[in-house]
Design goal:
Elements: E1 7-13, E2 19-31, E3 34-39, E4 44-50, H1 61-64, E5 69-75, E6 81-86, E7 91-97, E8 103-111, E9 115-117, E10 120-123, E11 125-133, E12 138-141, H2 143-149, H3 158-177, H4 230-234
Parallel strand pairs: 1-10
Antiparallel strand pairs: 1-2, 2-3, 2-4, 3-6, 4-5, 6-7, 7-8, 8-11, 9-10, 11-12
Length: about 240
């Protein structure tokens, strides 16, 4: 379990397991229902770009999967966002607020169930999402991007695409009925004004246990020259 106040990273993995994007946030709570994360305005974000700095999402799929990519550092520009990621479910639900802190609506992020590790959790995004306003009007988001990936060898089959869309439809029904997660909880949340934006931790790209990664972050690495003799350091 993560501790309240702890900084963790939410990482979206590419088709080949590499880190595609990262958001840094503050844990509000973590229990049997899942993780509640606050990503405050200005919190650290990493996104994949081309060497020239062009965002990956601005490129056709056939183009960006065949070019070298880098992580570009940016920040969460929207007002703070609260993210609830339930346990063992193919979705997360985000709460969006305006500049005055008033609730604007929900964002249903369709994704793989997350894999937790000591510094955060990893997921694979399913491209298709749902936007639900505070008065419960809703719309699909990124349908073209989702359709482009159907039956692509790196993504989902047509049958899997039906399951992804069905999960979105199930969550829409919950939203319209005011069911769990759409029953008013967190809508009046206000962060402590003393909280700073979440900074990118040095271990953001660590491999989780089971993938040759450490079991915990341990001490920050020392300088590379820390093992040099005094004579060598004096040169």
């Amino acid at each position: 379990m993560y501790e309240a106040g702890q900084t963790i990273v939410q990482r979206s993995l590419d088709h080949d397991g590499r880190i595609g994007s990262v958001e840094c946030g503050r844990v509000l709570q973590d229990d049997a229902d899942g993780v509640v994360l606050w990503v405050g305005q200005g919190s650290a974000v990493l996104q994949r770009t081309t060497v020239a700095g062009k965002p990956v999402r601005s490129l056709p799929l056939a183009e960006w999967v065949n070019v070298p990519l880098l992580h570009g550092a940016t920040e969460w520009r929207a007002p703070g966002t609260l993210m609830v990621t339930p346990v063992d479910t193919p979705h997360a639900v985000w709460w969006f607020f305006d500049e005055d802190g008033e609730f604007e609506g929900w964002y249903i992020n369709l994704q793989s169930p997350v894999q937790r590790w000591w510094g955060g959790y990893d997921r694979r995004d399913h491209a298709l999402d749902v936007v639900v306003t505070a008065d419960r009007r809703w719309a699909w988001k990124d349908e073209e991007e989702f359709a482009e990936r159907i039956d692509h060898p790196l993504y989902w089959t047509a049958a899997e695409a039906e399951q992804i869309r069905a999960e979105g439809e199930r969550l829409v029904a919950h939203a319209l009925a005011g069911a769990y997660l759409f029953d008013g909880r967190w809508c009046d949340f206000r962060p402590d004004p003393a909280w700073p934006p979440s900074a990118l931790p040095w271990w953001w790209d660590q491999l989780p246990p089971g993938r040759s990664g450490p079991a915990d972050p341990g001490p920050r690495p020392t300088r590379l020259d820390s093992g040099l003799s005094q004579a060598q350091q004096a040169r």
